[in-house]
Each structure stands twice: as C-alpha cells, then as structure tokens.
Design goal:
31% helix; 6-stranded mixed beta sheet; 5 helices; alpha+beta
Length: 156
C-alpha cells in the first residue's frame, strides 16, 4: 500500500473514533462538524422505525442530543474496519457494539442497559478539511432490552 492509502485508512478509522465520541462524550458542539458533511444521509431503520433520510447537520445534531440525553453513559466500540478508497470517496464496513445505560429510576428495577450489536456501512468524502462521513447506515444484528432505546424511554 502506498503512503496516501495508509494515511487515508488511518484517518478514516480515526473518523469513526470521533463519531463514537460524539455520543459517548456527549460532545455535540465541535465534533459533529469534524465528523459529518452537511447535509448527511442516515439510515438507522434497524433500531428505529424511521426511513433513511438526508438532513441538515444541525437537525441531526439536535436529534443526537435528544436521543442520548436520557442515558447516564454510553459506550460505542467500532472495530474491524474494512475500507475501500476510490479517489475522494471511501466506503467503510465496521463492527459495532453500543451500550447505553439508563438511570436507575427509568430502569424501574429491571435491566438498565440497551445493547446494540451489528455493523456500520458508512461512506465518507474527502473535503478540504479532511474526511467526513456523508452516509451512515447501522444494521443491528442483535439487541438486548430494546425497550430502553431513547424512543422507548421517551414513550414512558
């Protein structure tokens, strides 16, 4: 592999680390602009009853902020990146394990953690400021306590 390909691959893996940090650090100010294009296309249909959509980044940030507000902690592990770079575009397939802990009072004596395991199939574009995700697709292959998703907690 040439130096540019290695550099691109390294930047794309790091981009996914920053993506995970948005939720896990609840950093909704600077990180989203370092991670996503504006607008961004999203597909979370495997964990939420919503169709794929393209939205302005500011709208997605507010959705993220609301979705992660109920949790006392989250931890997203994104590994096993398989990356294909073609010019200024890249596809990234990666494994994900995402854990979301809700407050004890919301667990009501039951389980307090929503677990999602699956894959990301994302696309990125090279911009003058570096790589940015312009398409994010989560495919959940297993969930535990899905009633503790932010949508489930909001309906309580």
């Amino acid at each position: 592999m040439d130096t540019q390909t290695l550099s691109d691959r390294s930047e794309l893996v790091e981009l996914h680390g920053r993506y995970a940090d948005i939720a896990d650090l609840k950093e909704f100010t600077e990180l989203p602009g370092l991670v996503f294009t504006d607008p961004v296309t999203l597909d979370f249909g495997s964990v939420a009853d919503i169709p794929p959509m393209t939205v302005p980044l500011s709208d997605y940030v507010e959705t993220l902020r609301a979705a992660f507000a109920p949790y006392v902690a989250t931890h997203h592990t994104i590994t096993g990146h398989v990356i294909e770079v073609e010019g200024d575009r890249a596809t990234i397939h990666a494994h994900v394990r995402a854990e979301h802990w809700c407050p004890e009072e919301l667990a009501a004596g039951g389980p307090d953690r929503w677990l999602v395991v699956g894959f990301y199939d994302n696309e990125a574009v090279r911009t003058p400021d570096g790589w940015r995700l312009d398409r994010v697709k989560l495919t959940a292959t297993h969930q535990e306590n899905a009633h503790l998703s932010s949508a489930g907690l909001a309906s309580r």
